[in-house]
Protein 1
Amino acid sequence: MTTTLPAATTPQQADPLTVPPFAVVSGAQVQGALQGREPEIVELVEATYRLHGVGDSVNPPSYFLRFPDRPSSRIIALPASIGGQLRVDGLKWISSFPENVAAGVPRASAVLILNDHDTGYPFACLEASIISATRTAASAALAADWLSRDRPRPTRVGFVGTGLIARYIHTFLAGTGWSFDQIGVHDLSADSAAGFSGYLQQSGTTGQVTVHDSAETLIRSSDLVVFATVAAEPHVSDVSWFDHHPVVLHVSLRDLAPEILLASTNVVDDVEHCLKANTSPHLVEQLTGNRDFLAGTLDDVMAGRVMVPAEKPVIFSPFGLGVLDLAVGKYVYDKLASSGDLDIIDDFFHELRRHG
Ligand SMILES: NC(=O)c1ccc[n+]([C@@H]2O[C@H](COP(=O)([O-])OP(=O)(O)OC[C@H]3O[C@@H](n4cnc5c(N)ncnc54)[C@H](O)[C@@H]3O)[C@@H](O)[C@H]2O)c1
């Protein structure tokens, strides 16, 4: 299926050049614009991957800001530019402070800045933890669909790591037509596992929810396995756990030991991005000295350039591309602009005459 990106609305096509108004978009507005639109967002993410695949984007490496006094924390900058009909540039600036969770504060917080294609002026600042979770979940649901096309469609899903991202991924799977007979749940934190199980019950799922006290039993009993932990290094290394050839969405990127990837078909979102920052694919490259273990990108699969054999596990490791944040952020902005609900900050840009 070929999907098209929605056409851009203002302020991109202003002629003659003018300074665009500056809008601030709250998390509540973002959620209102995205909620219940899972199929549309997955289509948007698919179209954006295709655009990135043909090179109509700029997506430099993410920049990781780390702190000697807070080694588990980081803030990542993801600059990006999309061409096509969207024509927008921007930056996601996203913090990950895992210790927040114990205090009841979400791990990740973020803003997304959108920049005008013609003047370079920032024209919006959006709350972006919801945008980030949404594009991550949409990309996972898209991958689950494409990577299971040549094998029986999974009916048993298992989640290893059950925080916010796991919840969004389940919402996107359910919102794009997946239903499961069994849903496995495993987390090192009993509170997280219980909270996620509670969410599943409220979501109206008809599947039987089972909390596993080991990753092994969960993986062995799931045809679709989602990793959404905060593990910094591999904690799953036994290849025999994958003997039934599941589809694996390795969203947290660092859970699987090299031997698991070497026994599987490996699909990434972007090769250069994914082979960095000690992700599991990066560890395999360091171990083997080559990239032969990679089958290709999800775009390669969607374009038919890469086939996914049913006789092996398939692992999708998405680094997470800034172009997806931009596409989803611009979608939110356009929705609010067309309904007249943008909150504009008057006089945000003030020194607008060169010589006063
Ligand atoms: N690839 C991408 O595009 C992308 C985008 C967004 C988030 N992420 C990643 O998704 C992951 C989850 O994010 P979140 O916001 O849901 O985090 P979160 O802190 O809300 O939840 C993570 C959960 O994982 C559990 N956990 C940690 N180690 C575990 C282990 N070894 N086994 C089982 N459970 C374990 C924790 O107890 C916690 O409940 C993070 O690693 C984040 O970086 C990836």
Note: Residues 96, 98, 101, 107-108, 132, 136, 160-166, 186-189, 192, 228-231, 235, 251-253, 318-320 surround nicotinamide-adenine-dinucleotide (CB under 6 Å).
Protein 2
Amino acid sequence: MTSAGAARTSILTVDDDPGVSRAVARDLRRRYGDTHRIVRAESGEQALDALREMKLRGDTVAVLLADYRMPGMSGLDFLESALDLYPGARRVLLTAYADTDAAINAINVVDLDYYLLKPWDPPEEKLYPVIDAQLEAWATTDHSPVPETKVVGHRWSARSSQVREFLARNQVPYRWYTSDSAEGKQLLEAAEMDARQIPLVVTPDGQAMASPSDTELAGHVGLSTIPSKDFYDLVVIGGGPAGLGAAVYGASEGLKTVMVERLATGGQAGQSSRIENYLGFPDGVSGAQLTDRARRQAEKFGAELITTRDVVGLEINGSGRTVRFAGGESIDAHTVILATGVSYRQLAAEGCDALTGRGVFYGSALTEAANCKDQDVYVVGGANSAGQAAVYLARGARSVTILVRGESLTQSMSYYLIQQIEGIENIRVRTCCEVVEAHGHKQLEQITLQDKNTGQRETVDAGWLFVFIGAAPRTDWLDGTVVRDERGFVLAGPDLVVDGALPTGWNLDRQPFHLETSVPGVFAAGDVRSESAKRVASAVGEGAMAVMLVHRYIEGLS
Ligand SMILES: Cc1cc2nc3c(=O)[nH]c(=O)nc-3n(C[C@H](O)[C@H](O)[C@H](O)COP(=O)(O)OP(=O)(O)OC[C@H]3O[C@@H](n4cnc5c(N)ncnc54)[C@H](O)[C@@H]3O)c2cc1C
């Protein structure tokens, strides 16, 4: 771990003689202290450690000034090792007259930029002109620091892909480096990691994490993962449009509100490249933009937004409702809104599971699009989500083939999107077609398609397969507490009444409110609700409406 600090251009000097080291640093500081950070070290090892820290923080280093004769790591060895971390830094060797020959030889070995003879007095004549020239030469090339989060990984590493997806969906700006790129190698070296430990994530303040979990990542990029209170008026479970809607209305209407999200706020909508039918956005809005605004709005009103916490249990304790997280902790509240939406269904084709994140992707079209430039891409699915992904991917890919089981898109996709697709030259639609196998060792290489009518199979080369084949609610954790339909969607309001009877256990002398579930004070909003509209607008609307019913329920408690 390294310490925090602002990114600044540095001049580093290393000399094993503390007196000389201090003297060089003092002279440098006198002339350059206002514009540069002067870093002093007394051994090559110490200097390399300092450089590693600076690299991870995203600092820039303009000049390295090293004494030739040092016990342990010599000045030349240090400058050679420093090349891996800061190849652009100017390298100056400080030598005694007797070592001039060695310094001249070193010009070729470590690509030395200058050698400076000791003593350097007066610095105005002997030191500053040399350093000025080096700084000038350094400034002519672009060394702009990268203060954002950096991710070093491999294109075909599933965890690297998940980490990027996580950051993108949580609107955390990051820069991506492949582990075999020069910058990627430098970052790995700086973090003293090898390529097998990827992904490496480096936070803007220079902390390096090897293959972090989502929760570790969230904690280091400024996302809250721990609720601040034990008791709330309202716990909203799920951070998609319904959950965000509920958080905005709940907090703005004075309820102590916390929203708990498993992965990233925005839910399915956050994965949409362009939502064209949401009221008030005639030119469309990307899911990321909508999420960012909604999140800021919820926070402005004082809602707490917790990410990377999976809710795995709901208990009834008198008038309190206990929401339990994976890991054991829990929070209590007067009321709960279930806004857990739906999750992508997995493709059953043989070989797909093993290649997920390595060519087979579920809903990560936005993150992976840049990698698909000039490549042939396959999209599975016939609904709007598949159509939107195809349109988005077609901007960079050489070709996009939409694979649909049905005979046409008209049954499953909006008319405006079908028209859009028809107007894009590099999109092709293959109907009556199923993916039955995925092949590849380290990454997806081929897929086998089957014609649904003839049964004929064909294996084609494919490096990219984006799957959008519908979704299902993940509500098993509500077993035995909340009544659901046969597909797992939560029943609420009038849908709870079967043949005039309310569900067993309902013991209030009133009917359930419109979005209220079989547990009083627990509401359902958005896609997770049985027979819901499966649209952004309706999810947001239900989130808002559920809050209105929360008020009614809380009033009834007193
Ligand atoms: C690619 C794509 C494009 C789309 N385009 C459009 C469009 O153009 N127009 C339109 O109207 N609709 C569109 N939709 C549909 C729309 O996005 C959904 O109807 C809407 O997002 C539903 O919102 P929700 O909040 O109910 O659920 P979701 O968006 O599914 O959000 C639920 C959230 O709950 C979280 N969660 C689930 N379980 C737990 C748990 N146990 N603990 C904590 N958190 C949990 C999930 O991680 C998720 O973030 C699109 C969907 C997709 C996938």
Note: The pocket of flavin-adenine dinucleotide is lined by residues 237-243, 260-263, 267-269, 271-272, 275-277, 310-311, 339-342, 363, 384-385, 388, 474, 526-528, 534-537, 539 (CB under 6 Å).
Protein 3
Amino acid sequence: MRTDLMRADLHVHSSASDGTDPPAEVMRRAAQAGLDVVALTDHDTVAGHAEAGAVAGPLYPSLALLPGMELSGRLDGRSLHMLAYLFDADRPELSAELTRIRDDRVLRARAMVDKLAGLGVHVSWEQVAAIAGQAVVGRPHIARAMADSGAIASPREAFTHDWIADGGRAYVGRYALDPVRAIGLVRAAGGVTVLAHPRAGRDTRVTDEQITRLAAVGLAGLEVFHPDQSGAERARLLALAHDLDLVATGGSDDHGSLTGYRLGGETTSAGAYQDLLSRVPRLA
Ligand SMILES: [Zn+2]
Ligand SMILES: [Zn+2]
């Protein structure tokens, strides 16, 4: 691989979480987009890695799969996302945490179904689970069940204050990881953590001061190049990454048809990629 020409998209979802395409199809699209490296970063799960690994490499020799995931956390009462790479998901502490996050998603979805029943909307847990299939269950699946039952005209209408939007009548909050703990767990499992899209949206804006705090406890990088971050935000984040000695990464956050196919639309430079790999801790 000529590293000077390398193209790496370090933020991609499959149907193992809320993307629309199975992992194998995501790898096919990554190869077609001419990528040298693609990171599969499904929410809170590594369930897509085996299928992706059987395709990237064996079928597409020029494509390397970087195993990863995207973790949801909460800092000072606000949610944020973290990308983790190259960790060993079987390490007991990390694996217990992932189980806890997934169990909570099920408990939470069931609690929302119960609240909906109290509001006269009769969707069953079985219906929601069937819609989710192999994917990690979430609000989009409840929204589809609500539309199927005729309670609302389209899934989008579920995301209002009347129903399951944040703070809505049938909303139930979720367990969220403390980012400091997440960084520690990933490091202890031999991986590195990058703060995802710190300035992408109103709900997930992470301040300079918060980023400085996370850098002090072992954060390895900042996702600078993301479709939802403006040129001005990128410039600010790039300067911050430089000041704090964090790797400036990029990724498309492709979710298949859900986001419009955009795999490879944002990338990480060859130098930044090598820098990220050099920060992988050596485990005793
Ligand atoms: Zn995210
Ligand atoms: Zn994402």
Note: The chain is about 35% helix and 15% strand.
